[in-house]
Amino acid sequence: MRLAVIPAAGLGTRFLPTTKVVPKELLPVFDTPSLMHTVNEAIGAGIEHVVIVSNRAKPAIESFAETVRGARVTVVFQDSPRGLGHAVECARGQLGDAPFAVLLPDELLGDSSHLADLIAEHESSGSAAIGLKRVPRAEVSAYGCITPQGVPDSHGRVGVRDVVEKPNAVEAPSDLVIIGRYVFGRNVWGHLGSLRPAAGGELHLSDAIGALARRGGVTGILARCSRHDTGTPLGMLTASIDTALRRRDVGPQLRAWLAAHLTDPTNDPSR
Fold it and tell me: Is the pTM value of this prediction over 0.90?
């Protein structure tokens, strides 16, 4: 497993007006571009070639790619918003028939351990491997939700029978949802190539995963490392704070400042 795809073609409308100047993926998580954290995660799991799927309206992504050390980085383009399944297809010319990982940069994981687990599962079983987490039922409508085969084992592994994209809480088949880490073999291409557009004309990667799952070809693994959703300004802020708190050079000072700030009655917004 030496290849990874990072879809980064979105225009970051939740971060306007900032993203008129800086791509969302290059906004800092504390002092490091968010995309750099994702690339470092891939490198830490043994990836040697990263394919970033960008948009020609974001030339700063190409400049970023030239700064990366530790892996080869190639930028390809998805110039129309046709969904995550289409974004992965845009990278095929760089991937050929080799197995590959997909990392969504809006999901910031604390280290490379979860991606390494997914790679190991694929190399051991030959099945596609997808990252999972449990969420309250009220939150499943924001994710792709799996129909599991039984319950996760002691290592967090569970077979996947099917995938439902953003179900409502009542109809959701479980409380296990897909996070943005995936590992695929060559058999995913046939399913991606036969996708039909969903509402809005997008091609959903989760539909291809569902087709694989119905043939018994998908295993899910619960993530055990920390995770932040950096797809919203609040998520980006909390990721930055958490990242800084875990650093020895600034963590103690930030923790002391937060403690003093949160106990200062003059900062109470209800006053």
Answer: yes
pLDDT tens digits, residue range 210-232?
A: 999 999 999 999 999 989 999 99
Q: Which residue has the tokens 């592994």?
A: 157
What region, left, alpha or beta, does residue 265 occupy, with left being phi > 0 and alpha being psi -120 to 50 degrees? alpha
| Residue that the structure tokens 């400042």 belong to | 257
On whether residue 204 sits in a domain, the answer given is yes
Bridge-partner residues for 178, per DSSP? 132
Contact 61, 67 (CB under 8 A): no
Cross-strand bridge partners of residue 104: none
Counted domains in the chain = 1
Hey, what are 117's tokens?
A: 């687990």
Asked if residue 255 is part of any domain, the answer here is no
* Domain of residue 100, residue span: 3-230
Q: How far apart are CA 59 and CA 108, in angstroms?
A: 23
Spell out the residues 6+ positions from residue 167 whose beta carbon is closer than 8 angstroms to its own.
140, 141, 145, 173
Would you say 111 and 41 are in contact if contact means Cβ atoms under 8 Å apart? Answer: yes
DSSP string, 80-132: S---HHHHHHHTHHHHTTS-EEEE-TTEEESSSHHHHHHHHHHHHH-SEEEEE
pLDDT per residue over 70-95, tens digit each? 999 999 999 887 899 999 999 999 99
Contact 48, 118 (CB under 8 A): no
Which H or E run contains 209? helix 205-213
* Greatest Cα-to-Cα distance within the chain, rounded to the nearest angstrom: 62
In this structure, the strands spanning 176-184 and 100-103 are antiparallel
CB 232 within 8 A of CB 166: no
**257: in domain:** no
